[in-house]
Design goal:
Order of helices and strands: EEEEHEHHEE
Radius of gyration: 13 Å
Number of helices: 3
Strand order of the largest sheet: 1-2-3-4
Largest sheet: 4 strands, antiparallel
Strand content: 15-25%
Structural class: alpha+beta
Shape: globular
Distance between the termini: 17 Å
Length: 134
């Protein structure tokens, strides 16, 4: 993976199907500490704890979990990474996305980062991708 995860040298990632490139970096001084995702001209922000929290949740699942990426305005399918990223039962008690109107797509942009960090395995099909803890 290219980049060190800083604003000056962000991680260079691609979506699970490999169709779109984007960058992510840690904003540890933000309130709350954030993970910033830049896709074209759009900036999404997530709780920085999403990395460790998602990795821990995947270990608990013990098998492949569908990604289920969806925009904030659309419902997330039950049992998916996207649904967990919005669930009241996750460690942040709801949305990991911090910017209203841009809180979704957790299941699209977080999984490639966890794979690049060596925390998860990810499928790279055209649709219906899944992930699991390593």
């Amino acid at each position: 993976m290219a980049g060190t995860g800083t604003p000056q040298d962000p991680w260079q990632l691609t979506t699970p199907p490999g169709t779109s490139a984007y960058t992510m970096y840690r904003a540890e001084d933000a309130d709350p500490p954030s993970l910033v995702c830049v896709v074209g001209s759009t900036t999404l922000t997530y709780h920085l704890s999403a990395i460790d929290d998602l990795a821990a949740w995947l270990r608990e699942q013990g098998d492949w979990v569908p990604l289920g990426a969806a925009d904030e305005q659309k419902p997330a399918a039950d049992g998916t990474v996207e649904a967990w990223g919005r669930s009241d039962s996750n460690p942040v008690g709801g949305w990991y996305g911090l910017r209203k109107g841009y809180r979704g797509r957790f299941g699209m942009y977080l999984p490639p980062l966890l794979e690049a960090l060596g925390l998860a395995e990810l499928t790279h099909d055209a649709r219906n991708n899944r992930m699991r803890a390593i």
